């Protein structure tokens, strides 16, 4: 049986207004990760449109695969499409 990699924790802060990942911080200690998560949650107001997510995984590579929307620009594309649709509705 193969050994599992130790669980790491990744704190992602995603800026929905900019359509990009604002920060990604890695933690080995779950207690420290939870404290950082709570601090980040308290740092942003709902109006900031910042999403704070804490993910447990074996590696950042796995997180990039399982949560690709935070890393690959698809969120920015979706935001641009929403803006285009809103503008088109206003001009109709």
Number of domains: 1
Uncertain stretches of 5 or more adjacent residues: none
Structural class: alpha+beta
Name the helix and strand elements from N-terminus to C-terminus, one letter apiece: EEHEHH
Our measurement of the CA-to-CA distance between the termini, rounded to an integer number of angstroms, reads: 63 Å
Average pLDDT over all residues: 87
How many β-strand runs?
Answer: 3
Portion of residues within helices: 40-55%
Structure report:
With 92 residues, the chain is an alpha+beta fold. The chain has one domain. It is built from three helices and three strands. The chain has helices at residues 30-43, 60-66, 74-90, and strands at 8-15, 20-27, 50-57. The protein has a three-stranded antiparallel sheet with strand order 2-1-3. A hairpin with a 4-residue loop joins strand 1 (8-15) and strand 2 (20-27). The longest helix has 17 residues, at 74-90. The mean pLDDT is 87.
Key structural traits:
92 residues; alpha+beta; 3-stranded antiparallel beta sheet; 3 helices; 41% helix; flat
Give a quick summary of the entry:
By secondary structure, this protein is an alpha+beta fold. It has one domain (8-90). It is 41% helix and 26% strand.
SSE layout and pairings?
Layout: E1 8-15, E2 20-27, H1 30-43, E3 50-57, H2 60-66, H3 74-90
Antiparallel strand pairs: 1-2, 1-3
């Amino acid at each position: 049986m193969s050994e599992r990699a130790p669980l790491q924790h990744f704190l992602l802060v995603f800026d929905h207004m900019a359509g990009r990942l604002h920060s990604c911080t890695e933690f080995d200690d779950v207690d420290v990760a939870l404290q950082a998560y709570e601090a980040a949650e308290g740092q942003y107001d709902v109006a900031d449109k910042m999403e704070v997510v804490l993910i447990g995984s074996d590696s950042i590579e796995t997180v990039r695969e399982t949560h690709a929307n935070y890393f690959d620009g698809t969120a920015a594309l979706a935001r641009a499409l929403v803006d285009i649709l809103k503008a088109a509705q206003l001009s109709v």
